[in-house]
User: Fold this.
Amino acid sequence: MNRSLAVRRTAVAYGVLGLVVAIVTYPIWALTIGPLWGVLISIVLGALVAGVVHRTSDAAALRALDAAPLAEGRYPRLDNMVEGLTVAHGFRMPSMHVVEDAAPNAAVMSRTPRTGVLVLTTGLVERFDRVQLESVLAHELMRIRTGEAMANLTAAALPGRLAAVAPGPAARLAGMITDGSVVIEADMAATDITRYPPGLESALASIQADGRTVAHDSRAHRHLWLAVPADAVLTSTFDLGDRIAVLQEL
Assistant:
C-alpha cells in the first residue's frame, strides 16, 4: 500500500460514515424543521461526526492499548535509536508511548500522513537487544511512511467499533480499508534500512517463542500490533511463521 492509496481509503471511509449519519438523521430533521433545512443540517451533522471520530481516533486507540506517553529519559537507548533512524532515513519523529506489559510487541498508528504514534511494550524494550530493537523500529516507521498505519487506524476507528455486535461484517469492512499482505512489504523495507535481515527475523522469532499477548487492549485495535493476535478483528494475510520464513530467504 502506498500513502496516496491509504489517504484515499481513509477519506472514503470517513465520507461513508458522514453519509450514513446524514441519511439516518435526515428524517428527524425533515419532520421538525423541513426538508431543505433537514438536508443541510443532516449533512453538517454527518461531517461533524466523521471529523470528531477522525480527530480522536489515535487518542481512542492509545486508551484501548493502555498506552502512556514515554517519560523523557526512561529509555535513553530507545530515544537514541529512534532519533538516529529518523535523521538517517528521513522519517518524521513519532510520538512515543509505552505499555506496561511483559509481552514483547509494538504498534504504530497514524491519523494523518505527517503524524505518527509509536507504541512499545516494556517487555520488548527491556528484553530485545540493539539489533532486534532497531529492526522493529525500522519496520514500524516504514508502516507510517507507506500509509499502512493510517489505514489500520481507520479500520480500528470505524469498522472495528462494529466488531462487538457484528464481527463478520466488521472484518469485511476493515479488509476494504486495509491490505493484510503489505506487512511483508514493511518487513522487506525494514531490512533495506538496517541492511541486516536476521535482525528482524530474530525479533519476530523471539515474539513467536514468547507466545504471550498484551493483556489490555480491545479486539478492534489488536491488528495494530506488530504481532497480531489470532482473535483480532482484522488479521494479517501472513502470520509470524510466514514472515520469518520470508526473511530467512533473504
Q: What stands out?
A: The chain has a mean pLDDT of 89.
